Every structure is written in C-alpha cells, then in structure tokens.
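hey m, so remember when u said the tokens were messed up on ur end? i reran from scratch. heres the input so u can diff it against urs
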Amino acid sequence: MAQVEWPCSGGKDTSDVGAAPSITGLEWAGIGDAGLAVMAIAVVTSTACDLRTRRIPNVVTGSALVGGLAIRLAGGDLPSLTWGMLGALVALVAGTLPYLARRIGAGDVKLVVALGATIGPHATLLLVPSAVAMAAIWTLVIRARRSALMGTHPVGTGWHDVETVPLAPAIGAGAVLALVLVG
C-alpha cells in the first residue's frame, strides 16, 4: 500500500492508506480514534437517554453497532471485522443471562453488544465484569442518595422496592476501564 502523511501528524508519522489515522496517538484495543469516537458518542448518548427516560433507544445502539463494525471494516481487512463480530457475540452471550433474569434491560445488553463490536472480544471480556463492578457502585450511590432524600434505610426490604437504575453510565465507565486494562 502507498504511504500517506496525515495533516495532523506534523510530518512525523505515516500510515498505510486505508488505516485510520490516530490523532491522539491512542490505539487501545486496536480501535484508534474513530473507534473511540464511536464509543464516546454511544456512551454519552445512551447515558443521557438512560438517565432521563430509563431507556436506551435502538437507534443509538444500532448506530453504534454499525459504526463500530464499519470502522473495523474500514481498516481494510476481514479479520478485523470478524474480530468485531466476535466481540459482539461475547457481549451478547454475557448479557443474555442477566437480561433473562430481569436484572438489566434490553437496551443495556444492546449497548454492551455495540461496544463489544467496537473493542473486540478481549476487551469485551474485561468490559463485562468492569461494568458489573461499576453498576454495583453506581447502584449503591443512587440508593444512598434516594434514601437520604426520603429518609429511609438505603438497603430497603428487597429488590422489589427499588426503582430501575440507569446502567448506561456504569457500562460506559466499565468500557473505559476495560480499554485501560487492555492498553
């Protein structure tokens, strides 16, 4: 492939044509700047929707899934796309059981699947437990805040007395933690 100098590189860096240029120099999980942008947009939009309505719209998760896979395909090779699809599959398998147990919503599963397609299976294997840990912390914070506002005990009497908790912020934090761990 021909070498091309990217305008933001200052003449110091060249990349193969077809490869995504890295303005920030970050190549976490091999996704580059475009993958980070897809993730950031998906997480911020999902978080805003989830906090406001307790729903993550299909248009957000679907766009993120297509965007993540398109970026992998734009890298120029089929193995990268396959790796993204494997990341989505790992996320789907990991998210199905909590969904069937009614512990998370379908939008949460679809968000993890879209992020898994973007970051690949290795980072997704770290994303899931990281998101669970962040969700536990997030849930405790929300319950403590609600109990302080209502003057009740933060533990309550069981899961049946708890309103839904928006998990998109925890999933986003788990994705960031997974990327940092994968390096």
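this time it looks ok to me. The helical segments are 32-53, 58-74, 78-100, 106-150, 168-182. if urs says something different then somethings off w ur setup not the seq
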